[in-house]
Specification:
By secondary structure, this protein is of the alpha+beta class. The protein contains eight helices and twelve strands.
Length: 342
């Protein structure tokens, strides 16, 4: 393959990759995203037609001028003799263009209005979720049905298939923006104000959300995982999230639990079933059930977990998680304990 051919293939891969995947508005899997996608397609069609028409008439004008000979800029204009035969045609053309532009604008405004109304609609029996944005992670809460218990997790949003969800949005510090492009549009989280976004997923699978408003140094590393699953799988996940963490059976993990409860970890994090009950940082009761660390900064693995604890700034510069001095054996034991939180 020639160099130009390789560049063309690479460009095609990048183009197709940007149109498909876990985080793209061009592959909607929810009702709200499909409404937004239909508006996008309409706007693209209307603007594309206008663009082609403008280029076509521009080319026609240039070709006509070339055939008639280019008139120099300093040539004297013809003497005014009143209306010419070309003026009525020009007036009709301008009137047609004006009508076409007005019709296109009315069409876009009308469809935008209808799509905006459809985004605010909520289906029957919606799932209520509360999301609080922090610098730089997501706190996600599910109220327990018929009781006061609730599920609290971090950086992962679970949604049941075909059930509408209403997400209540809060900001703990600065303005953030909640965006799952495959499911719905962007909605800001503003301190002192509660916003809402609705979404109805129609396909099982993993998706990805992102903060879409610059919120500080680690804005780019403030993502969250979205899992759309069957209603039965969702209820099983929620029931498991209500379980407390069991006591570790391994001696190293037991020492790690003691370290967790007596060092700085317990000042920020909570583990249900232990003496750690702080809420300044993410709840770690089911830490190892998550796919990523530090709001999408690293995949969940033993090595990445150890690196995150040993030096958070090297993994996510600007993070508010402090570096806790630990010896090598202490770090190993602490990671062994955290690996039991599933």
């Amino acid at each position: 393959m020639t160099r130009s051919g390789r560049w063309a293939a690479a460009a095609a891969c990048l183009t197709l990759g940007g149109c498909r995947g876990l985080q793209t508005m061009l592959e909607p899997v929810g009702d709200q995203a499909r409404h937004i996608g239909s508006l996008w397609n309409l706007m693209l069609a209307v603007c594309g037609v206008m663009y082609v028409l403008v280029l076509g008439f521009l080319g026609w004008a240039l070709l006509r001028a070339r055939r008639n000979g280019w008139r120099s800029a300093d040539a004297a204009p013809p003497a005014a003799t009143g209306h010419t035969a070309a003026e009525p045609m020009l007036e009709r053309s301008l009137g047609s263009w004006t009508g076409l532009i007005v019709a296109g604008l009315i069409l876009l405004v009308t469809v935008s209005f209808l799509v905006d109304r459809s985004l605010a609609e909520v289906g029957p029996d919606p799932l209520r979720v509360k999301v609080t944005a922090h610098q730089w992670w997501w706190e996600i809460e599910y109220p327990q049905q018929g009781g006061d218990k609730r599920v609290t997790t971090a950086n992962e949003l679970h949604l049941p298939l075909n059930r509408p969800a209403v997400v209540e949005l809060h900001a703990a510090d600065v303005i953030h923006s909640f965006w799952v492009p495959n499911l719905s549009g962007k909605t800001d989280l503003i301190p002192g104000r509660v916003n809402y976004v609705s979404m109805t997923p129609r396909r099982v699978g993993p998706l990805r959300g992102q903060c879409a408003e610059f919120c500080g140094l680690e804005h780019a590393k403030m993502a969250f995982d979205v899992t759309v699953e069957s209603p039965q799988a969702f209820e099983a996940w929620r029931a498991h999230q209500l379980e407390v963490a069991p006591d570790p059976a391994d001696a190293a993990a037991q020492r790690g639990k003691t370290l967790f409860e007596t060092r700085a970890c317990a000042l920020c994090h909570q583990v249900a079933g232990s003496e750690a009950g702080a809420t300044n940082g993410p709840d770690l009761t089911h830490l190892m059930s998550r796919a990523h660390l530090a709001a999408g900064a690293r995949p969940m693995s033993r090595g990445d977990l150890a690196a995150w604890i040993a030096d958070p700034q090297s993994v996510k510069p600007g993070t508010t998680m402090p570096r806790v001095p630990l010896s090598g054996p202490d770090l190993t034991d602490l990671v062994s304990y955290l690996e039991t939180l599933k």
